[in-house]
Amino acid sequence: MKSDTQTREYIDYMNRQGVTTIDYVANSPRRFGATWKKRDVNGIIGMCYHQALGNTNVDQTIRYQIGSNSHFKNKPPSGCYTGFVSKNGTYYIINNLRDRTWSQGTTKTPGDENALYFAVCFQGAFTYPNMDSWSKGICKEPSAAQLKAASGIWLKSQEYFKWDNGMLLGHYHFGKRACPGTELEKIVEHYRSLAPAGLATFELSTLKGMQRALESLGYNPGPADGIMGVKTQTAIKNFQEDCGITVDGIPGPNTRRRLEIIYNKGKC
Ligand SMILES: [Zn+2]
Asked: Which residues surround ligand 1, an ion (CB under 5 A)?
């Protein structure tokens, strides 16, 4: 992103490239009167795909999912997406990227909103192995139009933003294993498999390399300087927690192995 006015330009670009889009101004109120820092759009580094889970009504879902919303008082918005893809494949994009969106990377680190992802949510609840029990029985696969849109949105967005294929992620990379579901995960992994080899070659034997890997996953470890500071330790703890391993903030073999797995297989 080059400036905060470029959402409009991005929408126009997507339209010119043959991707159907409708821009949308989210007007859901900020819950609890909470305020969040404006996003620095220059810091957006990639795209992250999600599923909407139980929501079915397009208008309500967009109003809920796009905008500065939150389930929790004094916490970052839990549902706040930049784009939304309805069942018929229409891609809705928020008009004001800077004022109305929150990052979708780590959710545990307020202040990390400046360097994370352009989040796109797909309407519906999709299957995933080991799905949370509450969502069993309501899940269906994405529509053919959504799967087509998922590829088109990525290909055209990466062209516009100059992202490499490694910068397409699924929410499961950040610890939510059911999101965005089996079929969309296949698309994410397909494009990630086309990424330059360099993506998977972080020097994970060094702290500096681990810091770079954590940074690329959105864990905000601070500068890659090989020094174990507070930010790096917090990033490691958040990563460990998301992976379900011992949370001790120590960049040991188990944590290194998890980073390797994410870069080789795309999941914890
Ligand atoms: Zn998600």
From this structure: 50, 171, 179
